[in-house]
Design brief:
CATH architecture of the largest domain: Sandwich
Order of helices and strands: EEEEEEEEEEHEEEEEEEEEEEEEEEHEE
CATH class of the largest domain: Mainly Beta
Domain Pirin C-terminal: 199-299
Strand order of the largest sheet: 1-21-18-23-16-13-12
Helix content: under 10%
Radius of gyration: 20 Å
Number of strands: 27
EC number: 1.13.11.24
Keywords: Dioxygenase, Oxidoreductase
Domain Pirin N-terminal: 48-129
Strand content: 35-45%
Largest sheet: 7 strands, antiparallel
InterPro entries: Pirin (IPR012093), Pirin_C_dom (IPR008778), Pirin_N_dom (IPR003829), RmlC-like_jellyroll (IPR014710), RmlC_Cupin_sf (IPR011051)
Length: 334
């Protein structure tokens, strides 16, 4: 492998262990059954068919704190209900992305309501834990919705007419720019070259990803399909590949459609001290943050439940400024 632009290949079960500026990525896949009246699963799980995570009625992650990093949540299937200690809430679904800067501290919950009572409720999302610079860790928390209708797609056709679709979540692909990231994000500045793509290749399609800078971190995760060739090497399904950044990388799908999560960016280059849901730069900062959380809870939780959800008929939306301002995407279908 030394003559290839591949540094490592590792199998993935759930968590993708990454490098600066990325922390890790969780890949949640669940085969939820039909829903009951309370937006939970109608039947109990058998043989670990699906996870409730920490939800008791509705699957998901009830009220919990974060500080010092960002969560970037990319939904491929299913629905997510968001609530936070700023008083904001929202519902987003397949194709949407939520980018949350936790800054100096926030509580939130992410619940996965099951909306369909007459059919199964498949669920899949990625949540990228993305680090912040020391200065950004001190900023107020904020989040931004990137609706599927707004996310740029680049469509590439190879010499044989086979097509690839590159969804540009962050950064650029060739001359196509992503939606602006939150202001106090390491990914907001072009010079940090944080490129996040969701790539879909038709069967046998070929695609070349341009080189980035020699100092960048670069990963590809093959998460759907049967065969994928990266830089002349056959990659197995659900494997994470670390790549040399300063070379163009050639991809080719096998006989089935292939999907790839692509992550690259300039490192922050600061110490990382991580304890549970807090990511700072030293153990003393972690101790101070936990003390501050015990005293303040990063603001009072304004919701009646630690695991609230919206009603079944709620369309996609997001609220900001303590719930004072709402936005909706161009369509409300779920």
């Amino acid at each position: 492998m030394h003559d290839l632009p591949i540094l490592s290949i590792v199998p993935v079960e759930f968590r993708l262990d990454l490098k600066d500026p990325f922390l890790f990525t969780a890949h949640h896949i669940d085969h939820f059954p039909t829903a009951n009246a309370d937006l939970g699963p109608q039947t109990a799980a058998k043989n670990k068919e699906f996870n409730m995570y920490y939800g008791e009625t509705v699957p998901g992650f009830p009220e919990h704190p974060h500080t010092g990093f960002e969560t970037i949540t990319l939904v491929e299937q299913g629905v997510v209900d968001h609530f936070d200690s700023l008083g904001n809430g929202g519902r987003y679904a397949a194709g949407d992305v939520q980018w949350l800067s936790t800054g100096n501290g926030i509580e939130h919950c992410e619940m996965f309501p099951l909306l369909h009572e007459n059919k199964e409720n498949p669920f899949e999302l990625f949540q990228i834990w993305f680090n912040s610079s020391p200065e950004q860790k001190r900023k107020d928390p904020a989040y931004k919705m990137m609706w599927r209708e707004q996310i740029p797609h680049v469509f590439s056709t190879d010499h044989a007419g086979r097509k690839s679709d590159i969804r540009v979540i962050s950064g650029y692909f060739n001359d196509t720019a992503a939606i602006n990231r939150p202001e106090h994000s390491w990914a907001a500045a072009d010079q940090n070259k944080v490129n996040i793509y969701l790539i879909t290749l038709e069967p046998y399609a070929e695609l070349t990803i341009p080189a980035t800078t020699a100092s960048a971190t670069r990963f590809a995760y093959f998460y759907q399909g049967k065969q994928l060739n990266i830089a002349g090497h056959e990659i197995e399904f659900k494997h994470l590949v670390e790549l040399k950044p300063a070379e163009a990388i050639h991809l080719q799908a096998g006989g089935m459609e292939a999907r790839v999560l692509w992550l690259e960016g300039e490192p922050i280059g600061e110490p990382v001290a991580m304890r549970g849901p807090f990511v700072l730069n030293s153990n003393q900062e972690l101790n101070d943050a936990f003390k501050r959380y015990r005293e303040t809870q990063f603001g009072e939780w304004p919701w009646q439940s630690p695991a609230p959800v919206f009603k079944r008929e709620q369309p996609r939306f997001a609220s900001y400024e303590g719930g004072q301002r709402e936005e909706y995407p161009e369509t409300d279908d779920l």
